[in-house]
Amino acid sequence: MSGVSMRILRPLPVSFLLASLLSACGTTGPSVAPIDNSTLGQAEFRTHQTTYGVVYLLPQDVTSVLDAKVNAPVKQHLLKMGLQTEADNPNLPHVTVVHIHSADPSTPQKMLKALPKPPAPIRLTLKSFYTTEAAKGAGHPWWLDLGIVKSGQGFEDMMAFNTRATAAMAPLRDGPLPRVTGPVYAKMAEPGRELVKTMGVSGVNVMKDGKELRAHNPHNTLVYSMALFTPALQTSMNQLAEQLNGVLPNGIDTTFREVSIVELAFAGNVTRELYRISLVDGSVVDMRTGARVSR
């Protein structure tokens, strides 16, 4: 959820998006809990219970390059800056489609049922390291990201799927993502606040007047942090990003062939994979059992 551009003025209400989705699917859809936005006016972050997401886990041809050229210098830099928690933070490398928060343990199954048809395998290039904050001036959380080249058919397919998945997943939340509440919500501009209220999260694509409005910024995150993003720390991490851009000036070309439903920690790092869906043939595997399942 980092590095988003707030260009959306008035997203469609969730009720309209859910009604459109159910009408298109010809089904009554899964039951959902009431959505509670009461924490948005509080000074502190909403208590985190469970965040689920739809993501692309990075293929091995990407993770092997990151392992060989990026991960070690990143960890060394974090330790040098005294960021032990960040250095030890577990994560399955991924590119987010959408995240939602829900305390309901049956949410992953509901997500699988509601998930729109995924795109065909996506060809793209991961390129350009940078730091970003959840909201400028909020202090935390912040991230070190590897971006995606924003052109080509693969990028267009990725963005179109985000729009469909956002409409399908947002109604399954019980309220906003904790990391966009409290001090982050207080620092957001009004378009971002509107997305948090209507979608539970900022930085997603929605439809308005038949047109796709894009705020989604797909990326891979290497560092997740709740440490205060002081000017000194920001300068240091920006220097690291510049160093990494010198290591991979041309980025990494790859093809995403799978999308997964996952569980995530507060800052968005994936802690476990629940369902893996093939972009090649649509097959689904329950990653907790290894068994193929139907949707």
UniProtKB/TrEMBL annotation:
Signal peptide limits: 1-24
Keywords: Signal
Protein name per its UniProtKB record: Lipoprotein
